[in-house]
Amino acid sequence: MIKPPPLRNDCFALPAGVNWTPVDDALALLRDRLSVVTGVEQVDLGAALGRVLAVDVIAARSNPPLANSAVDGYGFAGAVPKGAHVMPLLAARAAAGGGFDGAVPAGTAVRVLTGAALPDGVETVILQEDVTVGAQEIAFHGPLKAGSNTRKAGEDVVAGDRALARGRVLTAVDLALLSAVGVAQVAVFQRLRVAVLSTGDELVEPGEVISPDLIYDANRPMLLAMLGQFGFVPVDMGRVPDDRAALRSRLDQAAEQADVILTSGGASAGDEDHVSALLQEAGAMQEWRIALKPGRPLALGIWGGKSVFGLPGNPVAALVCTLVFARPAMGVLAGMAWQEPQGFDVPAAFEKRKKPGRREYLRARIRDGRAEVFASEGSGRISGLSWAEGLVELGDEERVIQQGDMVRYIPYAGFGV
Q1: Distance CA 97, CA 301 (A)
Q2: Lowest-confidence range among 120-129, 180-189, 195-204, 275-284?
Q3: pLDDT, position 77
C-alpha cells in the first residue's frame, strides 16, 4: 500500500506579522496545509460503515442493470392516445428475477410485475389499478406516454461512472449504493488514532476522594467520547501533573501510539504551561491567538512527527476549539474532505450586545423554533454544555441582537457529535 508523506514541521506557521487570527483565516490555514497521515487498507462492504474512502469508487454495474417496471401492471409498446382501448393479453408474465422468453408483439400486452426487466417489445407499463382484465384481453383509458411507469437502464448510475468520491465518510445508504453497483470491497484510510492527554496538578479521576482545591478531570472523558463519535480511534493517555519531564515522557508515548495528539491545559504561556514550553523546545510550536470566544489560545505543533493540538484547559473552551478547529483538521488528517458544520438561520429567543473583533459561540438549543442560549456565558459552566444541543455562532462584527433577529444555529450533530 502507498504511504502518506510525513506532516511538515512548518504546517502550522502563521504568516509574518500575524498576531490575532480570525476564525476563517485559521480554518483556511488548516484546510490548506494539512493532508492525510494514515495508510490505506481494503475492507469488505460489511465493515465499511463510517470509514473514509481512499480512492474514488467506480460502479462495476449499472443501476438498474436493465430497463424495468416501476409498478405492477401491464406492459406494451409505445404510447396510447386519449380514449378507451382494448388490447390482447398474452398468457404469460414478466417478474423480477425471472426471465421472459420471446418478444411481445406490437399492439399486445403482457402482465408485468414491479422490478421485472421489460420484455422485448415493451416500452410502457400501465398500473394494474387502471385496467379491467378479461379472459385474454385488457381494457383501459388513455392517454399514456411512452415509457410511463418504467425505469431506464442505468438511470441511477452507469457502469464505469464514479459512484462515490475519495474522502467520503461512508454511511449506511452509501453501502446500499455500492452494493447495488456491484462493489464488494473498498479501499479506505486506516482509522485515525488520536491520543488524549490532560495536564495539571489540580486534576484527579472522578470517584477519588479529593480536597476542595482539586477538581475532577472533565475534559478527557468528553474528548475521548467525541473522538469515537467522529469515527476516530481514541487513545487514552491519562493525566500528567505539571512536571515537564513527566509530560515529555507521556508525549513520547503518545507519539508512538497515535497519529495525532490532543492535549488540554498548559497551552498558553504561563509558568505551568508545559505543553507550550515543550513544543517550543522541540522547535515546532505555534501559538495561535484566535479571535474567538471562548477559546482564544490554541497551541499547535509537532511532537515525534505527530501533530499536536493543545486545547485550552477550560472545558467550554476545549469543546468549542475541538468542534471548530480540531474536528475538521483531524478529518483532513484522516483522509476526509474538509467538512463545514451544517448550520441554520433561526429566530433568536434572546437579546445580546456583541463587541466587534471576535467570533463568539454561545451554548444554545432550539425550542418552539427559536434559539435559546444558556443563562450564563461563563466558560467554567460545564452544565451549559449538557443543557445545550448546539451552538449559536455570532460573526466577527459588532452586533446588537433583539428577540426574533435571525442567528446561525449549529446543532452538535452538525459538528459530527
Answers
A1: 59
A2: 275-284
A3: 97
For 31, 138, 240, 279, the CA distances from 272, given in Å and listed in that order, are: 31, 88, 12, 14
Residue 4 has pLDDT above 70, yes or no: no
C-alpha grid cell, residue 350:
434572546
Q: Domain count for the chain, please give it.
A: 4
Give pLDDT, residue 12. 52
Burial class of residue 206 (count of CB atoms within 10 Å of its CB; 0-12, 13-18, 19+) = exposed
Query: Looking at 280, 304, 333, which one is the last position of a domain?
Result: 333
The pLDDT tens digits for 408-417 are: 999 999 998 8
Containing structural domain, residue 242: 20-39+190-333
Q: 110 Cβ partners below 8 Å, 6+ apart?
A: 74, 75, 76, 89, 90, 92, 93, 94, 100, 104, 119, 122
CATH for 56:
3.90.105.10
Beta-carbon contacts of 149 under 8 Å, excluding residues fewer than 6 positions away, are 69, 70, 71, 73, 124, 125, 126, 127
pLDDT surpassing 60 at residue 17: no
Specify the amino acid at residue 387. Answer: W
The residue assigned the cell 442493470 is 65
Answer whether residue 8 is part of any domain: no
Q: Count CA atoms within 13 Å of residue 173 on its CB side.
A: 0
pLDDT tops 60 at residue 318:
yes
Residue-level pLDDT at 8 = 47
242: exposed, middle or buried (C-beta count within 10 Å: 0-12, 13-18, 19+)?
middle
Highest mean pLDDT among 99-113, 167-181, 296-310: 167-181
Taking residue 355's Cβ as centre, other Cβ atoms within 10 Å add up to 10
Q: What is the DSSP pairing of strand 292-293 with strand 359-367?
A: parallel
Between CA 156 and CA 288 the distance in angstroms is: 47
Region of residue 318 (phi > 0: left; psi between -120 and 50: alpha; otherwise: beta): alpha
**pLDDT-derived band of residue 78, with 50, 70 and 90 as boundaries?**
very high
Kindly report whether the global pTM for this prediction surpasses the value 0.90.
no
Q: Which residue has the cell 477519588?
A: 208
Reported as half-sphere exposure (CB side, CA atoms, 13 A), residue 14 has a value of: 19
The torsion angle over the Cα atoms of residues 21, 27, 32 and 33, rounded to 10 degrees, is 70
Residue 7 grid coordinates:
506532516
